[in-house]
Amino acid sequence: MTANMSASGMELGRADMIVSDGVDKWYGDFQALKGVTAQVAEREVVVVLGPSGSGKSTWIRCINRLEVHQGGTIAVDGVELTNDTRNIDKIRSDVGMVFQQFNLFPHLTVMDNITLAPRWVRKQPKAEAETKAMELLERVGIPEQAAKFPGQLSGGQQQRVAIARSLAMEPRIMLFDEPTSALDPEMISEVLEVMKDLARGGMTMMVVTHEMGFAREVADRIIFMESGEIVEVGTPEHFFTNPTEDRTKLFLSQIL
Amino acid sequence: MSSSVVPPNLTPEDFEVEYSEEASLPPEDPSLSPSVWIQKNLFSSPSSAVLTVVFSVIAVLTIRGLLAFILGEERQWDAIATNSRLMAAQGYPLDQFVRIWVAFGSLIGLAGFSAAIFRASGTISLKRIAIWVMNIGVAAGVIGLLAPLSSSGRMGWIIAALVVFGVGAAIWFGFGEERRRSTFIPSIWVLSGFALIGVISLWVVPYGHYFLGEDGRATVEEGTVAFSTQMPWTVMWAILVVSHLVGLAVRDRLPAQASKGFLGLLWVIAPFVANWIILRDPDFDYDHVFSTDIPMALAFIVIGGAVLWAQSSSTIGETGRLLAIAILLAAVYTWVSRIEFLDFLPNWSMLQKARLSMLFLGLYGLAASNFSRDNATRRAYVAGWVIFMVIFHWLVTAVNSPSTLNIQSDTYLGGFTLTLFIAWLTLLVSFPIGVVMALGRTSNLPIFRLLSTGYIEIIRGVPLITILFFFANILLFFLPEGMEIAKVAAVVIGYGLFSAAYLAENVRGGLQSIRRGQFEAADALGLTTSQRTAFIVLPQALRVSIPPLVGQAIATFKETALVAIIGLNDFLRIANNTIPAQTDFVGAKREGLLIVSAIYFVVAFSMSKYSQRLEKRLGLGTR
User: Fold this and answer.
1) In this complex, do B520 and A99 lie within 8 Å of one another by their Cβ atoms?
2) Residue A159 to residues A42, A121, A181, A182: CA-CA distances in angstroms?
3) Where are the beta strands (DSSP E) in B290-398?
4) How far apart are CA A225 and CA A169, in angstroms?
5) Strands B218-220 vs B210-212: parallel, antiparallel or unpaired
6) Does residue B490 or residue B340 have the better pLDDT?
7) What are phi and psi of B273, to 5 degrees?
8) What pTM, to 2 d.p., does this model score?
9) Per the CB < 8 Å rule, is A121 touching B526?
């Protein structure tokens, strides 16, 4: 694994936003993560690839403590994740997360979905939060849906609202856990466009996805995982054209 | 961009309407001719033909038997008509009866207004109205044909049936297929139309115990329904209609959220106001009120308000929470200790107020950090405390003042009024406790889980009647010295605690149906556990729990009948014990029981119907 640190923060000349050092995670007797070590630098876009069950979702969920890791350390923006709830709250409000199943709040309108956390966590006044929310909805292309309920939107629109909801907290890092896997094919591109736009804007992003086109186009680095381990790390060019590991080659031959 | 960012004309209600009613109607199934329908549904095979015939005969015999029971000559319906005032309000003094009408009128006005604000009134298509009216005609026809009537009476019923059926048929055929299905009338107007027919009939038909004088005019005995209630009921009907019209007129000019919240508050305090203020007419001792009660309330408003203002400051941090906990502990200390330091308070009711106010102050202060956003939010937070304190001190002062009513028995409420009062208060008491218990049982903290589970399981293992006996007879001995509690209050507390355990289990079902993703999304946004519970988990859980919660509410309403056993005069007891003991109506028990059953059924059925509508409305936007 030591050979794979080709583009760490040091090399890019930026601070590391996420440092994962030897992270272990068990579900009962099953070890889901085996000493996962990697860094994500500021304004870097990292795409995590791998077959299903390889631990990539588990890893990304450990980063904002939705899952609790049992070995190793995770530090986000210099704050280490421990059982101290104040650290967790601090990290969670700085880290946005987009889920595969959107997880919008079905009983709230789109507007309320977006403004809830800024109003109650960031303590923004209602008017200010709503102005901000409207800007975000314009940015993701659906300002006209503000007063609707999530159940009245298409999957792609829901996922865009979910992205806007995360952005409303003005996070420094965005985590995407298979954001397009639950979408119908014709809706995938509208979500990917929003993500590309975010990446161009300089957001630090970690993306678990199966969209190879997105990975090739947007990623600064690709991390390939299998069976709870990082197998290979590299630039998209290196990864797609000249992978070194056999397991990576096998994976690529199966999907391309 | 201005601060009003949502397009002004769009509210969630607009979309609900769009989704529920403006969708174009699907074509109806082709209607079958009667003979084909009968063949298809009733006589499709030899066995179904046999079943149809057998059960038709059973149905006819049952209806005939029931009608014979209701209309039989030995029935003493006069017993009910003459005693209807007793069944409604027991021994409430006649000269004070206007208080009952004022209380009832206030509730009706509140209901009519709320129905407009909450947009609770659905719509009914002309087609369904026509079918209803025709069904009523058919029912009247069945009575006319099957009941044991004189031949002229039978003719009257049949003619009436034909007329009603004809009206229904006229509505049906007077409008074309398209208009009949697409013309909608607000159901509240249909209902108040039926109510109007009932009210008018009070003026025309001399129900009850009357006799015809020589001049041909009906003379009524003292206490008979029709002639004593025609005016009040007419006024009640007018209040309903006017309040609803006012609600319709102003609802678009009121801020929706705020007015709904205010009406919700009114509904919560309505039973207390109706009972302690209107019906009881507390005899305030104004010297005491000005010298002690008001200064005390002001002290809690001013000092408490200042403390809360400080606690909700954005710079206070954890100190605010510690302060709240300190106040809470001090309040608890005044309950468990034989307090001396509050001895300067002149009497027990003052002590009670001080203790409760402190307890509330501590609890309210715990939420302070959620309102530190800006000064407007802090002001709203403190204003909430002020409003709460004003209502609280006012009500407690009213409870502790003597009543002006001169009543011999220990409870001035009785009959159906008592039934409604107990059911309503019990639900009010049990709802918050039940929700807290459900949250406790699903909490991660072992002490909460243990306490809630223990409470729920113990209460669910004890029969209701045992709990009622306990609270009605034994609770008194556990009270601190100098405290008294009315039997009704003791019953409400016991019944509320009982009902809360069942309610908690229903809410827990709702809590468990919330998907994990909702918790994760709330956590990922950085919401605290209490914010997550209040904004994300509970609203969804309660929606899911509506059907079982309404089932619980119906059961609570019906089981108030048990209070008859511990000696409260609810209307079951009046029908079962009091009326049959009157010299005029010795043994007339069946009539009363039938009427009581019918009233229980009507109330329970309305609640069930309303819950179906509520479910449908809240289900929209949730998928």
Assistant:
1) yes
2) 24, 22, 11, 10
3) none
4) 30
5) antiparallel
6) B490
7) -65, -45
8) 0.81
9) yes
For residue range B163-189, what is the model confidence (pLDDT) as tens digits?
Answer: 999 998 998 888 877 787 788 888 888
A188-241, pLDDT tens digit by residue? 988 999 999 999 998 999 999 988 888 988 899 999 998 888 998 999 988 888
pLDDT at B11: 47
Tell me the shortest Cα–Cα distance from B364 to chain A, in angstroms. Answer: 17
Burial class, A169, CB count within 10 angstroms (exposed 0-12 / middle 13-18 / buried 19+): buried
Query: Which of B86, B61, B33 lies closest to B582 in space, CA to CA?
Result: B86
Cα–Cα distance, B505 to B4 (Å, whole number): 42
Q: Is B468 within 8 Å of B495 (Cβ atoms)?
A: yes
As a whole number of Å, the CA-based R_g of chain A is 18
Radius of gyration of chain B (CA): 29
pLDDT band at B622 (very low <50, low <70, confident <90, very high): very low
Q: What are phi and psi of A192, to 5 degrees?
A: -65, -35
Portions of chain B given CATH number 1.10.3720.10: 72-92+409-623
User: Which residues from B are below 8 Å from A105, CB to CB?
Assistant: 518, 521-522, 535-536, 540
Class of domain B72-92+409-623 as given by CATH: mainly alpha
DSSP per-residue codes, B538-553:
HHHHHHHTHHHHHHHH
* Mean pLDDT, chain A, whole residue set: 87
pLDDT band at B377 (very low <50, low <70, confident <90, very high): confident
**With an 8 Å Cβ cutoff, are A93 and B526 in contact?**
yes
